[in-house]
Design goal:
The chain has a five-stranded parallel sheet with strand order 5-4-3-6-7, sandwiched between helices. The protein has a two-stranded antiparallel ribbon with strand order 1-2. The protein has helices spanning about 35-60, 65-80, 90-115, 125-155, 170-180, 215-220, 235-245, 285-320, 370-375, 385-390, 405-410, 445-460, 460-480; strands at about 10-15, 15-20, 160-165, 185-190, 210, 225-230, 250-255, 270, 275-280, 330-335, 340-345, 395, 425-430. Helix content is about 45%, strand content about 15%. It contains 13 helices and 13 strands. The chain has about 475 residues and is α/β, with parallel strands linked by helices.
Length: about 475
């Protein structure tokens, strides 16, 4: 799900120079992550809390904590480890992640329990209490631990001291990350740079302690714990010389190459043979994550189609009676990797534009039938797209597909527009539940929609998908942007 907020980029060295980077910054998962006290607490807090609540309720109900409970406790810990909540996140996001991940866990484990009959080994009141109480217990433990940990770190005894080599965009960003996230337990004492002080940018009050060749001596004399080298890739000889000087210290050395100034989409470390490569822009749905996404799409779309079949039949009759034409409108859209797909919708207009020029629907659009206005407002016209999901053309959650004509227009106007096609389009999306549903009559509105789409790609998890589905239900009944 989400990685621990530990020091950002580490480097190892082989005889040929620097060749390996690792990171676990927020949602990016790189190889060989390093862990801190904070990230260890984050990893264990959720599963341990869930197990303790289970055992406490068992004892409160007079149950013997035997093998059945032990197996359930082990399964719970294994499936919930590491925890998904982070101390540096906003309370609203912590609450969302805690509730959605717990709901996803209980659905999966409950389905297994019912199918296998294992659920019959436990009294229903204890299980129901466990399902309802655990999210509140977790949130209580999270915010108590957050407060206590911040107090411990504020005393300074457990804080690591940090110096940054390079007063540039990367170095300033590293220092700001430590300042913004006190749970990392690190304090930046200053910068080193070869340029004159009057040529350096503002360092937010942190001192420049000397030149690069003075860094090693400062580290030895002042017991510095961590060194972050934010020097340009063109400075490799200077970096190698500095690394030789630093061999006489006990400080941990982290290299932050300037490639990470760019906005990474699912940035990860891969290898081609023995050569490491960094993914700058990649899909989140590879390997097990891709399998989990596809299985969830198949299961949920099958359930929705069965439950919604009577409603879809009524809607089909309503469309047929509202105006002449087909019940289902098939529109060409861009799908995964920018390939054209056919997307199904209940027809809501008298005309069906699907050529090189497609006019977006606007408020009071005369092309929309009265019945069509109703199904567009409630998003009922999108229900046939669950068939697209089963076909593998779409996902339930993902960036909304635009008409091909709109794509060709906006890809020239909005930076990063086509990156949204690294994943399958969705019936609903993060942009739609965040206020960017309906007509995008200005470029800035489309830019905001793309911004949310890219945020979805960076932060994807099954829990995030579930949260978007829940929010979609609420948005459908109160959104004023749909017509």
């Amino acid at each position: 799900m989400y990685g621990a907020p530990t020091p950002m980029y580490a480097a190892t060295q082989n005889p040929n120079g620097i060749d390996m980077y690792s990171s676990i910054e927020n949602h990016h998962s790189f190889l060989r992550p390093s862990y801190t006290l904070t990230s260890a607490i984050e990893a264990f807090l959720y599963p341990v809390t869930a197990v303790l609540v289970l055992l406490a309720l068992a004892l409160a109900n007079g149950q013997h904590v035997g093998s059945a409970y032990m197996v359930l406790a082990i399964l719970t810990f294994s499936l919930l480890f590491p925890g998904v909540t982070r101390f540096n996140e906003r309370p609203r996001r912590v609450i969302r992640k805690a509730i959605t991940s717990w709901l996803l866990f209980t659905v999966l484990l409950g389905s297994f329990g019912v199918a296998s009959g294992y659920i019959n080994h436990f009294p229903r009141p204890a299980l129901l209490g466990w399902v309802l109480i655990t999210p509140f217990a977790l949130l209580t433990m999270h915010f108590v631990a957050r407060h206590v940990l911040l107090g411990v770190l504020a005393k300074g005894k457990r804080q690591r001291t940090v110096v940054v080599g390079g007063v540039n965009e990367v170095g300033l960003r590293i220092a700001q990350q430590f300042s913004d996230n006190p749970y990392l337990g690190c304090r930046v004492v200053g910068f080193f740079d070869d340029r004159a002080l009057d040529r350096l940018p503002e360092t937010n009050g942190l001192p420049t302690l000397g030149r690069i060749n003075e860094l090693a001596e400062f580290v030895k004399l002042n017991h510095v714990d961590h060194i972050y080298l934010a020097l340009p890739m063109a400075s490799q000889p200077r970096i190698l010389s500095l690394l030789d000087d630093l061999k006489d210290t006990t400080a941990s050395i982290f290299f932050v190459p300037d490639i990470f100034v760019t906005d990474l989409i699912q940035g990860q470390l891969h290898s081609v043979g023995n050569t490491p490569v960094v993914a700058v822009c990649d899909t989140p749905f590879t390997g097990f994550r891709g399998l989990a996404k596809r299985l969830s799409d198949i299961v949920l779309s099958s359930i929705f189609l069965v439950l919604l079949a009577p409603i879809m039949l009524v809607l089909a009759i309503g469309v047929k009676m509202s105006s002449p034409g087909p019940v289902i409108f098939k529109q060409r859209r861009y799908g995964l990797d920018g390939k054209e797909i056919l997307v199904y919708k209940f027809r809501s207009m008298r005309t069906t534009d699907n050529g090189p020029v497609v006019k977006q629907a606007t408020k009071g659009d005369p092309r929309i039938t009265p019945f069509g206005a109703f199904i567009r407002k409630t998003s009922l016209d999108e229900l046939p797209q669950f068939i697209n999901v089963l076909q593998g053309r779409m996902s339930i959650v993902g960036p909304r597909p635009h008409a091909v004509a709109h794509n060709e227009t906006y890809r020239k106007l909005v930076k990063g527009y086509m990156v949204r096609h690294k994943v399958k389009p969705g019936i609903t999306g993060w942009a739609q539940v965040s206020g960017y549903r309906g007509e995008t009559e200005t470029v800035d509105k489309m830019e905001k929609r793309i911004e949310f789409d890219l945020e979805y790609l960076r932060n994807w998890s099954l829990g995030f998908d579930l949260w978007i589905i829940f929010k979609t239900v609420a948005v459908v009944f109160k959104d004023k942007n749909a017509y």
